[in-house]
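We close this part of the discussion by returning to an individual protein. In the encoding step, the backbone of a single protein was reduced to a row of integers, each denoting a local shape. The sequence in question and its structure tokens are set out directly beneath this paragraph.
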Amino acid sequence: MLRRNFLFIIFLICLTNLFAQWNDDATSNTVISDLNGPQAIPKIGTHEDGDSYVGWFSNDNGNYDVRLQRFDANGNEQWPHNGILISNHEAMSWLTDWDLKVDYDDYAILAFQDIRTGNNNVFVYRISPDGEFVWGADGIQLSDSEAFDVSPKIAVTEANNIIIVWQADSVIIMQKISPEGELLWGENGITLSGENTYSWPQPIAVGEDDIILKFYEDSGPVWAPVRHILAQRFDADGNPVWNENTVISDAGGISAWTQLLSGVPDDNDGFFIVWHDDRDANNLADSFIQHVTADGETTFQDNGIPITTQSGYNHFYPRVSYIPETEEIYIFWNEMDGNQNLRGIFGQKMNLSGDRLWGDTGIAFVSLSETNVLPIAVRKSETDVVVFFTEYQNSLASILKAMRINGDGNYIWEAEQISMSSLSSEKMHFDVNRFNNDQWIAVWEDLRNDDGDIYGQNIHLNGELGGGSLAENYQINSDDNLFPKRRHQKRTDGN
């Protein structure tokens, strides 16, 4: 009888996996949420054990609720389809950015703002793998003011504390929370302010319990600011570590619409950051990179090194990744002609000295043409990188592709560019996790059927979609253990 029950349980597990794994069909993909009404702005976070959380906004009842789903490494839903409801408190009718991270205990951390108190305030939730609301059914309220508190971002420190940063009108506020939900930087957090406006903070966890914060200093009108990029390191108590803010760029030319930048840790408690600007006011954007060390020093020339010297063209939307094992920096960007009619995707490799190793103008991986393409993310394996990008079929509809590039600037996959979502539809708000369990996972908002659903798709190191059983995937991971399990594996956004 015991053997029969055991076999029945195994049968149920296999049956569940049969109907819920990551889809291997690029025309279908995996449906994460197909509730009525718009489903919007998905985020994904993956634990080192291979399971992932996907969160998003759901307007299935006239309000932008927040929902969350948990997947195992093979794409099996761990909770009911369409996930669990995190918050149905009243939200604005339009959305801003938000954040989701996974801590070292495999708990999901979600930070967003809503208007449940009458004003726009920031709230944070911690959700266990079993769906338990660890910090209460309503989360923790982090702000309580009439300011426009907006676009919170999260860092998980090595000590497993949670740091949330956000903009509140002209200042930035930081708060640190223990796993138990204790506010470690006072009831109101720490406010950063200056003579001018501080905006668009992005934290990177460094050391045992520190962060480095990238932010802007803006002066002038909000629609056309003089925008400088700054950084500061804060210790476990929230005190600034560097004597003064590090200037990443004060060359100007950064538009009001250039907000969140691509940056990655350097594996030595510093980081690399890339951006585009029009500092010479010639109506052509150039892209730059800067390296900030753990001590707040910049190792490249003031205001950054140009990633390409090609003149007469725009170099928009750079994305960066860093491979510590080879000490190589990879940057990919949107190359456009002056009228923005011709578009392509170019790449550059640099060393720690800032030398351009693929020539001064880089390599064209998607040649200039009238087809609109857009780089979404660059993610690393141990020795090379994968570039995720969209290719538009008309003014709105696009497909999602990926290409794996080695250190010599050559394609690794025989097909060169692989379609992850080949159905032409309006897609937006992409997020891509870090390499784990022999795969990357992309999630996005997709209007193929209605006002918007949430879809996801994995792609393996060999370029295949979908995949076999969990045991098969873990066997691959144990043969080529690129991310060994350890208690203090650093979190890296965009790497």
